[in-house]
Amino acid sequence: MKKIVLTGAAGRLGSYLREPLSKMADALVSTDIAEDIGKLYEGESYLKADLGSLDEMMAVMEGAEMVVHFGAIGDEAPWEDILHSNIIGARNVWEAAYQQGARRVVYASSIHAVGMHLKQDFIGIDAPHRPDTYYGLAKCFAEDLGSLFWDKRGLESVHLRILSAAQVNNPRSLGSWLSYDDLIQLVQRAIEAPTTGFSIIYGVSNNDRAPVDNHLASYLGYRPKDNAEQFAEKVLAEAPPPDPTDPAQMCQGGPFATVELGHSGTATMNIVNDKKEV
C-alpha cells in the first residue's frame, strides 16, 4: 500500500510498531505530540500533531490507506484530559480518516472497555461493555464510533482490546501478557485482512491462563506464539498471597477495577518502560 499513518508513535508500543509498519507501505507517517521521535526508518516521516485538532488530523491523514491509531492517554486520568485526547481525539481520527478516503482504522482499544467483568467468566469479543474507568469508557466510545462509521459510512475498523503489553512481573500478567512480537503480528493481521467490517479482537498472547476468548475473531488470522507460563514459577514465588475478595485480582481490569475515577491505574503496576530505541 502507499501510505500508513501511525498515531502515538512516541509511545512505548508505538516504538515497536514503527519499523514493521515502515516495511508495509511506501510511506509511513508517524505522529504524536512530541517534538520529534529521533532517527526515522526508511520511508518514515514524522509530523507533530494534536489528536484534539481535526485540522491537524486532516493534514496527517491525507492520502492514507490505513490508520493505526495508538495515540492518546494510556492510563486513567482526569475527565477533561480523557475527553480531549481519547474521546474527541478518536472522533477526529475517524472523521479525518473518512474524509481523506482511508480504508481502515486499526485501533488500540483495551481490556478496560470490559474491565469490570470477572476473569473467571472467560468473556468473548461479544461481551457487553463494562468499563472500569474514564479511560475504559473512552475505549467503549471509540469502539461504538468504529461501529457507527462502518454502518453509516463504510469505514472499516479493527479494535484491538489489548490486555497488558508489558513485561510479566505480576500474577495478573501471566494471563494478560501480550508480547511485542505478538503485538506486531496482531497489527499486521488487522492491516492485511482482506475485509474486516467492524471487528473486535483481544490483544493477548497464547497464554495458558488467558482470561478471554478470541475464537469469534479467528477470521482475522491472528495466531499468537508466545506464552507467559515461562515466567510463572518466578512470578508466583515472589507474589503476595492471593485474595479472592479483591476486585483488582478478580476483574479483567486488574488495578483499574479499584482505582478512584480520574486517578492513575498504572501507578501500582510496576510497568517497565522498555521502549525500543532506533
TrEMBL record:
Superkingdom of the organism of origin: Bacteria
GO molecular function, one term: oxidoreductase activity
Keyword Endoplasmic reticulum: no
Keywords: NAD, Oxidoreductase
One Pfam family, short name: Epimerase
Similarity section: Belongs to the NAD(P)-dependent epimerase/dehydratase family.
Record's protein name: NAD(P)-dependent oxidoreductase
SUPFAM superfamilies assigned: NAD(P)-binding Rossmann-fold domains
Residue stretches making up the NAD-dependent epimerase/dehydratase domain: 4-162
Species this protein is from: Harenicola maris
